[in-house]
């Protein structure tokens, strides 16, 4: 018996549901080329994404994400990182 799973964009599944059908979810991600987010008590904890050897793909995802480009040769201090505040 074969179960076909279609993965929608940003589909989520609980850890318990994923555990019993992991191989089926892996095959669905591979076939659909769309990520699957695994949750624990409704909170996203893992993301399964299709593998790609295309290094340019990562750069395409980052294109347009730079908010400000001011003096890139200046050193960066800990106080410059918003995440550390």
In short:
The chain has three helices and three strands; from the N terminus they run E-H-H-E-E-H. It is α+β, with helices and mostly antiparallel strands and 85 residues long.
* N-to-C series of helices and strands: EHHEEH
Decide which structural class fits the backbone.
alpha+beta
General shape: elongated
Main sheet overview: 3 strands, mixed
Number of helices: 3
End-to-end separation in angstroms reads: 54 Å
Strand content: 15-25%
**Oligomeric state as shown:** single chain
The figure for the number of domains is 1
Q: Could you please describe the fold and organization of this structure?
A:
The protein is of the alpha+beta class and 85 residues long. 29% of the residues lie in helices and 18% in strands. Strands 1-2-3 form a 3-stranded mixed β-sheet. The longest helix has 11 residues, at 22-32. It is elongated.
Characteristic terms for this protein:
85 residues, alpha+beta, three-stranded mixed sheet, 3 strands, 18% strand
Q: Which helices and strands, and how do they pair?
A:
Layout: E1 11-14, H1 15-20, H2 22-32, E2 36-40, E3 43-48, H3 55-62
Parallel strand pairs: 1-2
Antiparallel strand pairs: 2-3
């Amino acid at each position: 018996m074969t179960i076909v799973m279609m993965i929608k964009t940003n589909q989520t599944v609980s850890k318990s549901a994923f555990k019993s059908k992991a191989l089926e979810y892996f095959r669905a991600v591979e076939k659909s080329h769309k990520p699957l987010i695994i949750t624990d008590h409704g909170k996203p904890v893992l993301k399964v994404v299709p593998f790609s050897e295309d290094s340019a793909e990562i750069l395409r995802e980052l294109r347009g994400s730079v908010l400000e480009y001011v003096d890139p040769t200046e050193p960066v201090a800990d106080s410059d990182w918003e995440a550390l505040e």
